[in-house]
């Protein structure tokens, strides 16, 4: 099993160094590195989806129906009963904090410089995430690695479009995706936030955006193919890459929505992988229908294996 994992990670890292792998980060990606049985605490560790659901249910007096906390349903209840403003305020309060940066974030942020230092062509991973926090962005800032952010707008005047932040530049709404070429994933890392994000750039948070209620997801699904909404270079990258799903489970609505919006019912064209600890039979069947191989192990162990593979590849002659 260990030999198989090492060979897999070597293949993945080789493709990543060639710019052919797009990591997709779900809520579970934020839990890697968090000590077991450690409760969520604002400003310390990011919440899981269940913890966020519990928090919103308490804040908005959601009636206990005895079922597993449903983040979409609870968020819809909060929006209907109090308006989207109070819901957004609560979400901003949760995510407007410098949470611990996890090992996955640091691994991805360190990759471009490590590759360049080894004398290889600079590798700039495009990273897709459905998370709202900015831990990944802060990991890149910590190592002075430039990056772009392209984030979905779920509400407001520009609802259904993406907004782009280049390093040191003001936000630009992507009005004509097929003509917009300012986001170039082959030149520097692009973080594509498919379901919006917290805006910590100014006190009034004008770009706060969260695809989180049932209505948000219905609206998201009703829109055109998501590849027609993101800048053209990013759409091309999505069509011509392997995908590495980290921190997702079949229960995650955001995973199923993102798969449908990008690929419809078809299998992925490039071999792709999902890391999920103890997947159920239903989970395995779900991934298999998409042509995705499942690796049953903790995310932290997988990151360590990727690190080993990267170190080995960078130590080899460039033409190896």
Q: Compute the gyration radius: what is it?
A: 19 Å
Low-pLDDT parts are none
- The coarse silhouette is globular
Q: How many helices? A: 11
**Strand/helix succession:** HEHHHHEHEEEEHHEHEHEH
If you had to describe this structure to a student in words, what would you say it looks like?
This protein has 320 residues and is α/β, with parallel strands linked by helices. The protein has one domain. It is 40% helix and 12% strand. It is built from 11 helices and 9 strands. The protein has a 9-stranded mixed sheet with strand order 5-4-3-6-2-1-7-8-9, sandwiched between helices. Helix 3 packs across helix 4. The model has no long low-confidence stretch (mean pLDDT 90).
Could you list some keywords that capture this structure?
about 325 residues; alpha/beta; single chain
Question: How is this fold's topology laid out?
Answer:
Elements: H1 2-17, E1 21-25, H2 49-59, H3 71-82, H4 84-95, H5 103-117, E2 126-129, H6 135-142, E3 147-152, E4 162-165, E5 172-174, E6 189-193, H7 214-222, H8 232-239, E7 242-246, H9 253-263, E8 272-275, H10 281-289, E9 292-295, H11 299-315
Parallel strand pairs: 1-2, 1-7, 2-6, 3-6, 7-8, 8-9
Antiparallel strand pairs: 3-4, 4-5
Helix pairs in contact: 1-11, 2-3, 3-4, 5-6, 5-11
């Amino acid at each position: 099993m260990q030999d198989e994992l090492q060979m897999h990670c070597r293949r993945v890292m080789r493709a990543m160094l060639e710019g052919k792998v797009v990591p997709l980060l779900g809520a579970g990606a934020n839990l890697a590195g968090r000590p077991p049985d450690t409760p969520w605490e604002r400003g310390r560790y990011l919440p899981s989806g269940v913890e966020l659901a519990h928090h919103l249910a308490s804040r908005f007096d959601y009636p206990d129906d005895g079922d597993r906390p449903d983040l979409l349903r609870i968020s819809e209840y909060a929006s209907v009963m109090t308006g989207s403003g109070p819901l957004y305020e609560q979400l901003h309060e949760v995510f407007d904090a410098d949470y611990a940066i996890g090992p996955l974030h640091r691994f991805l942020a360190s990759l471009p410089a490590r590759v360049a230092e080894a004398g290889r062509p600079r590798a700039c991973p495009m990273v897709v995430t459905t998370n709202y926090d900015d831990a990944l962005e802060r990991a890149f800032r910590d190592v002075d690695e430039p990056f772009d952010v392209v984030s979905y707008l779920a509400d407001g005047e520009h609802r259904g479009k993406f907004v782009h932040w280049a390093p040191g530049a003001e936000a630009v709404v992507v009005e004509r995706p097929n003509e917009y070429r300012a986001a170039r994933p082959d030149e520097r890392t692009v973080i594509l936030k498919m379901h919006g994000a917290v805006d910590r750039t100014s006190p009034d948070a004008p770009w706060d955006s969260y695809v989180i209620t049932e209505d948000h997801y219905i609206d998201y699904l009703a829109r055109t193919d998501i590849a027609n909404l993101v800048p053209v270079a990013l759409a091309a990258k999505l069509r011509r890459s392997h995908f590495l799903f980290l921190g997702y489970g079949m229960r995650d609505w955001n995973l199923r929505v993102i798969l449908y919006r990008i690929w419809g019912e078809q299998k992925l064209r490039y071999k792709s992988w999902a890391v999920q600890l103890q997947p159920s039979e239903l989970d395995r069947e779900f991934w298999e229908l998409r042509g995705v191989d499942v690796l049953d192990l903790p995310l932290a162990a997988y990151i360590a294996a990727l690190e080993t593979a990267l170190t080995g590849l960078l130590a080899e002659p460039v033409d190896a």
